Amino acid sequence: MKDAFGTPQSLLILGGTSEIALATARRLIARRTRTVWLAGRPSPDLEKAAAHLRGLGAETHTVAFDALAPDSHETILGKVFAEGDIDMVLLAFGMLGDQALDERDPVAAVRVAQTNYTGAVSAGLVCARALQAQGHGSLVVLSSVAAERARRSNFIYGSAKAGLDAFTQGLGDALHGTGVHVMVVRPGFVRTSMTAGRPETPLATTPEAVATAIELGLRRRSETVWVPGALRLVMAALRHVPRPLFRRLPL
What we know:
Elements: E1 10-14, H1 19-31, E2 35-40, H2 44-55, E3 59-64, H3 73-82, E4 88-91, H4 99-104, H5 106-134, E5 137-142, H6 155-175, E6 180-187, H7 207-220, E7 224-227, H8 231-238, H9 243-246
Parallel strand pairs: 1-2, 1-4, 2-3, 4-5, 5-6, 6-7
């Protein structure tokens, strides 16, 4: 169960090598979290992440999980929940893709969409049902500011995140009153290995800043978190820019 400040004792991360997720885990372990499950494709990086969290004092387990294998999600995640209550699920897997290449390769574009949207829908529904059955817990989903409006430079990734964002909001409404808290996190450009080499956008942030915002959102039981917070106002303005003008902006 969570403590009086909303800190979970147990945490399941879907996308166990995500830099944002691991920064969040470190922050929560420093508070009260004692058990962490890292779900992801088996790899040395996944084992390294688990060893790191164990060194911080958390009982950490790894579980083989593939976002692109939805037929396996119910069985794999069901086994995790069967081990005991999970106070927080952080859905953090995703792929940025390469817009220029993906436009020329529909199969690659579909892989971006399946990873960021359909895989997340499957895993999100499985975890939501399990959280509802235990009567408590938080489902935190990493969306993106890219979900707010399609841009020429990343509309394949952005469209998938837009679908995920809408799905998560609807899921939150469906679970309202059940004891399950659903929170959408919309970071802007985050400095990670996934974005290395790409030109930064204004208001760029870090995994640690996103982790801080997630923790604060948990305490407040927020439904939507922007990182940094100023992006809420920026996107509110950009959302209403006429399309001919928006098309010409250097975004």
